[in-house]
Amino acid sequence: xxxxxxxxxSDSGIPFGLSLSKRTSLAALAAFxxxxxxxxxxxxxxxxxxxxxxxxxxxxxxxDLAAWEGPRWRLADARGQVVVLxxxxxxxxxxxxxxxxxxxxxxxHASDKLQVVAVNFRETDGxxxxxxxxxxxxxxxxxxxxxxxxxxxxxxxxxxxVVFGRDGRAAFTVTGEVDWAGAAARAWIxxxxx
Length: 194
Known about the structure:
The protein has a single domain, classed as Glutaredoxin, CATH 3.40.30.10. It has a nine-stranded mixed β-sheet. The chain has a two-stranded antiparallel sheet with strand order 1-9. The protein is of the alpha+beta class and about 190 residues long.
């Protein structure tokens, strides 16, 4: 199965394409995608991903999480930078597939003051350690141990990425796997970098 066949996982850990209730999951995702405030990505580098602007009247929730290694990380401390906050889990195949392109995004835009942060969803130290032993990450990893941060940002499908402008406000979200080096992601990121 390619990325276009299975671009997101539910918070139960079951890829939508493999779920026993495939029709229900696909119907829910289709209904979600049909909402008028969403913008679907139709580029080859973001098949099935859903891009949507952050509602202007919705406040940006604060974020203060423990880091896997290092000090706590606070969104308020990142003001002046563009922050790409990716919610992921090691059991989610699309999450694992997306992480290398997020690392590349961080490398390419470090001089633009863009920071990529990976927020692990409710996994144990052992699960994260096993994942990192096989697939080391260079971006900071935060721990959403109780799922509170994901809930605050409305994350129910993984991966979900929230992008913040330099003012600290959420600008948009992307649900589903994306090649962050591709054309769709470049078009989404460019206005926030200005």
